[in-house]
Amino acid sequence: GLFVTDYFTRTPRKLSPFRSFASIELFHFHIPEDTVIAVWNLITFKEQGGTFGDQCPDRSITVYFRSGAPSVINPLHTHFPRDTAVPGSFALTLTWTLPNRTTGVFNVTSPLPGDWFLAAHLPKDEGKISVKGLYEECQYLFQPQLIVQRLVNIAVLYPGYVTEQSMAPHNRSCLYKVFVPSYTSRVLVEVLRCRGAEGCPLWLRVRAKAPPLHNSTVLDCQEHTPCQLALDLPFWQHWYYVLVEKHPGVPGTVSFQVIVQLTDCSRPSLARPPFLPSSASMNMPHSFGSAGGLVLGDSPPPASPNGTKHPLPIPTTSPAGERCWPVRPTLRNELDTFSVHFYIFFGPNVSVPPDRPAVFVINLLPVLDSGGVLNLELRLNVSSLCGENVTVFGCLNHEVPLTSGDNTSVTCETDSLAGFLLSVNATASLSRLRIPYPQTGSWYLSLRSLCATEHGFEPCTNVTAEVYLRAYLSPCINDCGIYGQCKLLRTNNYLYAACECKAGWNGWGCTDNSEAFSYGFQLLSTLLLCLSNVMFVPPVAIAVRSHYLLEAAVYIFTMFFSTFYHACDQPGIVVFCIMEYDVLQFCDFLGSLMSVWVTVIAMARLQPVVLYLLGAMLLSMALQMDRHGLWNLLGPSLFALGIMAIAWTARTIRRRHCYPPTWKRWAFYLCPGALIAAAAVLLYAFVETEENYFYIHSIWHLLIAGSVGFLLPPRAKPSRRLGPLPRRKGCGYQLCVNEQEELGLVDPAVASINSICTS
């Protein structure tokens, strides 16, 4: 055949350590029909500071592949919520072959067409809290590329018509495809009039949705006469591929005929008619294939290039159990993103008769619905059983309903079909099923009622069970509970939802409490973070005693908002918020930086209010730009230290000796305060992690408040050369004007002060 190669690529993205599904990077691809091979080229490289990260450590990268929906992964081996079905996926671990780059290749032969999803992440780290901008972080970038090779002009088989084929000596196989519409219970593929040098040296392989593989359903025509391959319960509205393969080493030309017959389960005594008015009556796609669609009227379809098609008579009998029951549709009601309710006409209470199943269909839209959770709930009305020991079984299957002819069967699986089983009875009247990231398309729910006897389950007589049925699509499982947050995520144009757990809870629905924080631990951490701010009371008292009223107001502001910010910032249930979280965070950060600013300005012995206003404006601007950026926060602090250094240097030059002048001030106040502040900064920048946050950050509060108490300068004393002002006797008042204070010179040691008293 003729092959066409397509190439797809995605933008490189930075990978993150795995904490939950919200921390993975998801990539969405679309594989076209008739693809015979798909090759993923997985490129990973390191970066540090805008260059190649040769010095970055090697960290393994795990990549997950799944067709139809994102992978449901569990690398931490946590527990899933009850009644949750976990679909499988394929995982691949990449190792480094070069210092800063590695490449992996993942091949899929005859992949399923449609949506494919790749999920990638780094291993879980120790949870260190790093200051943004303190050092160049190692980044691990991942870029997947997809190369597909697909066949074009695959010959199409029409049900009920014979296709003649001659396989030349240099050819090994012939590939065909046939479309299976809805309400088809059986596909029969037969090879006729096979003639070769050694009988019929052919293998017959059939597979749904994609070309057959070596492990697909196979039949050796040399050992089976007639060469017929039957598939029961085929997938509806899909292509089936038929591969006729020649045995190796067979000389000469092999000629044969291929015919496909479809059994219509809505009319069990008839097969699909060979002539139809149009392709729409068979629910076939408009792009039917290389042979073209069926023409209008009763004219036969066009002949294939290598043979003609002849209609065969329609059989009048069919095997038992091929009858299908009416499928009741559901009404789709979209409330929000991944919030869809499926209502049953004349429901939600449905009746399950004893002699036939009740079948319902739930249609999930492509791409739009695969990023949520499909929820199904069955509740049995016990009063409708009339005292009988009735069990209602429900089978949820994808793309075809499971309507077995065996009434006593309680399984939802066949050789080629997998499903989910639900059951309710008088003792267990409620059953739930959750499917995270379900595959899109049609999901069929078949309900049957059976009575339990000594010999097993048997069909009931004259008992119609009533069941409450609820089906809906939700973003997350139980909205992630009280210890999680359901996040709506986006990758390019694809939306999906995932839980982000807190307070040590893990799992897909934040229900795994193996590492959860107890209530006492949550209360202790909250109290430590909040009450450690009481350490600001001594600096407030010192500031008031030294007449630093503006500084005292800033310290009170910091203490208040830091206390209530940490009360609102807790991950568990011990949470108390007096304002919006963003407002509390801004005020806490602003108060902390303003405390540093006003303390340094006070140490510089500068009183102009313009410096305080300048600091408030600069810090507000920096916090608005980036609250966690290192230089946005460190810049104003360094600017304040520069002002203090200039003021101290100027005084030292004028006085011609070191300022502050006393060694006691350096030994008992400045050096201890500076050491305490440096220790606090080192703890905050290099020691703090997610596990020790509550007590390391509490120590940070204590050290910062303690350093302020040491660094805040004492109240300026008047000069000893100033004696008491003489008081003029007589009536009236005395107005004293200090010329130096009017000029803004607050240091009495700079010059002599002359006071003028006027009555």
Automatic annotation (TrEMBL):
Provenance organism:
Chordeiles acutipennis (Lesser nighthawk)
Compartments, as annotated in UniProt? Cell membrane
Please list every transmembrane segment annotated in the UniProt record, as residue ranges: 516-536, 548-567, 631-650, 666-687, 693-712
Q: List keywords of the entry alphabetically.
A: Cell membrane, Membrane, Transmembrane, Transmembrane helix
Gene (name only): Tmem8b
Q: Which InterPro entries match?
A: EGF, NGX6/PGAP6/MYMK
Domain EGF-like: start-end pairs:
499-510
Q: Which PROSITE patterns match?
A: EGF_1 (PS00022), EGF_2 (PS01186)
Protein name, as recorded:
TMM8B protein
What topology does the record note for this protein and the membrane? Multi-pass membrane protein
Tell me one Pfam family matched here: DUF3522
